[in-house]
Write a structure and sequence with these properties.
This protein is mostly helical and 142 residues long. It is 71% helix and 0% strand. It is a multi-pass membrane protein. It is found in: Membrane.
């Protein structure tokens, strides 16, 4: 039976707090879009963001990024944050501009808050990684 190590400091770190915030804001965005019966693309983007961000949070919390060294996880996380920010910008601006009802408007506003959290997450990650340095096992992912 394999014992999984838990990084109990990660949720209290700036990156952990941003990941938790992203997950919660994405879930609120999802609820707003579902409650207002918005277009399926709005809902799909919000639920995808909840799932992907929660998976990255678990990856770092359980230190699986160190066990699965075949991928440079911080760089994958940066790509996820940047691509999510681009999709959120487009979809949430459409939701705000079209504004079929107040729920769609609220979902669009929460989506823009989520966009800011994605950018903050990418910047925090980018500050911690070095693309030209060695990729040892001791490279911090937080």
């Amino acid at each position: 039976m394999a014992v999984v190590a838990v990084d109990s400091n990660f949720p209290r770190s700036p990156r952990g707090a941003v990941k938790l915030g992203r997950t919660l804001v994405a879930f609120v965005t999802f609820l707003c879009f579902v409650a207002s019966r918005s277009h399926g693309a709005y809902t799909a983007l919000a639920v995808a963001e909840v799932v992907i961000t929660a998976l990255f949070f678990l990856l770092y919390l359980l230190k699986l990024d160190k066990k699965m060294g075949w991928l440079f996880w911080p760089l994958a996380d940066i790509f996820n944050s940047v691509i999510a920010a681009l999709f959120l910008l487009i979809v949430c601006l459409f939701a705000i501009i079209i504004k079929t009802n107040n729920g769609t408007l609220a979902g669009g506003v929460f989506g823009l808050v989520l966009l800011v959290l994605c950018i903050v997450d990418a910047v925090l990650l980018f500050q911690k990684i070095s693309l030209d340095g060695p990729r040892g096992r001791n490279t911090p992912a937080k």
